Amino acid sequence: MRGRTLGTKRRPLDAIALEVFRHRLSAIAEEMGVVLRRSSFSANIKERQDYSCAVFDSEAQL
Length: 62
Known about the structure:
- By secondary structure, the protein is mainly α.
- It is built from 2 helices and no strands.
């Protein structure tokens, strides 16, 4: 989304909102890992927990 505007004004995040947002993203990644472990057939994922999770936008940007 670099170089594009969404037509809304940006306002600075306060410390509390930023911390809530950080924990929310962390919880999303943790839940992705739980689902991956439950549905996996690979021993690397199921037993060794050797995987990573990320959140991408519609343009495949982190």
